[in-house]
């Protein structure tokens, strides 16, 4: 696969998704040091610009090796960084990847993630040839669960006590969306999340 496929610039009505660069590190730190944004993330809130730079460098490395696609989400109106959206755990043979996203708190509730993630999902299906995109979230993360449902993901199951971050143990809810869509009455639509 050509390297450019893993360094795309994707434009939507209000947003520009593009690979993160070192110049984004301060704005990215602002987003990822917010305990509320990082509440359900699998790492503690970031504390230094180096955390941000490390993330950007590792993302770039993963993209160069075609293991992931990590994009900054910029507002077209101001050019400001609203968040990040990514496809990770890319498995070429199985044609699947995992989606993840986070927005700065002032950008919540404006439908940005629906717009950004849908564009990335379409890119994954059409340009990377993915058959399946999955997501793993904390079952208590209501806004993410709702955002995934609005994006057409089905809840497929719950893995109990999967994470321990700073001594806090949590379950994982697994969601999936198929390129071909779910047939009507798919059992995934009937699974309910229950936190331990
Ligand atoms: C997940 C996230 C990107 C969603 O962004 P957003 O801009 O708020 O998304 P939306 O505007 O589409 O809103 C999500 C939905 O959740 C609903 N919601 C949010 N908090 C809720 C709550 N506590 N109870 C019930 N519904 C809630 C909203 O009302 C909205 O539903 P609606 O459109 O039907 O009204 C954002 O909350 C975020 O960055 N969270 C921190 C990072 C994170 O947890 N990422 C997920 C790990 S992959």
Features:
binds coenzyme A; globular; 196 residues; Aminopeptidase; eight-stranded mixed β-sheet
Secondary-structure blueprint:
Elements (H helix, E strand, L loop, with lengths): L9 E2 L3 E5 L5 H8 L16 H16 L4 E7 L5 E11 L4 E8 L8 H15 L5 E6 L4 H9 L3 E12 L2 E11 L18
Parallel strand pairs: 5-6
Antiparallel strand pairs: 1-2, 2-3, 3-4, 4-5, 6-8, 7-8
Helix pairs in contact: 1-2
The protein binds coenzyme A.
Indicate how many domains the architecture comprises. 1
Question: How many β strands by DSSP?
Answer: 8
Helix content estimate: 10-25%
The spatial strand order of the largest sheet comes to 1-2-3-4-5-6-8-7
Question: Which outline best applies?
Answer: globular
CATH architecture: 3-Layer(aba) Sandwich
Average pLDDT level: 92
CATH class: Alpha Beta
Number of helices: 4
The CATH topology annotation reads as Aminopeptidase
Determine the strand fraction and express it as a percent band: 25-35%
Query: CA-to-CA gap between the ends?
Result: 42 Å
Poorly predicted parts: 189-196
Assign the CATH superfamily: Gcn5-related N-acetyltransferase (GNAT)
Alpha-beta content class: alpha+beta
Computed CA radius of gyration, to the nearest angstrom: 16 Å
Your description of this structure?
- By secondary structure, the protein is α+β, with helices and mostly antiparallel strands.
- The protein has a single domain, classed as 3-Layer(aba) Sandwich (Aminopeptidase), CATH 3.40.630.
- Helices cover 24% and strands 32% of the residues.
- It contains four helices and eight strands.
- An eight-stranded mixed β-sheet has the order 1-2-3-4-5-6-8-7, with helices on both faces.
- The longest helix has 16 residues, at 49-64.
- The chain is globular and about 45 Å long.
- The model is unreliable at 189-196 (pLDDT under 50).
- Coenzyme A (COA) binds next to strand 5, helix 3 and helix 4.
């Amino acid at each position: 696969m050509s390297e450019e496929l893993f360094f795309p610039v994707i434009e939507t009505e209000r947003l520009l998704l593009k690979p993160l660069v070192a110049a984004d590190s301060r704005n990215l730190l602002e987003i990822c040091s917010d305990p509320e944004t990082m509440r359900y993330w699998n790492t503690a809130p970031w504390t230094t610009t180096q955390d941000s730079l490390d993330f950007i460098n590792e993302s770039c490395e993963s993209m160069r090796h075609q293991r992931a696609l990590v994009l900054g989400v910029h507002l077209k109106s101001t050019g400001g960084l609203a968040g990040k959206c990514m496809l990770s755990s890319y498995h070429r043979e199985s044609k699947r990847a995992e989606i993840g996203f986070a927005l700065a708190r002032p950008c919540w509730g404006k439908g940005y993630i629906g717009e950004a993630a849908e564009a990335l999902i379409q890119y994954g299906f059409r340009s990377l040839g993915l058959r399946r995109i999955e997501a793993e979230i904390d079952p208590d993360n209501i806004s993410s669960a709702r955002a995934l449902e609005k994006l057409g993901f089905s809840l497929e199951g719950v893995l109990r006590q999967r994470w321990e971050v700073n001594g806090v143990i949590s379950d994982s809810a697994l969601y999936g969306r198929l390129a071909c869509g779910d047939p009507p009455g798919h059992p995934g639509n009937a699974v309910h999340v229950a936190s331990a």
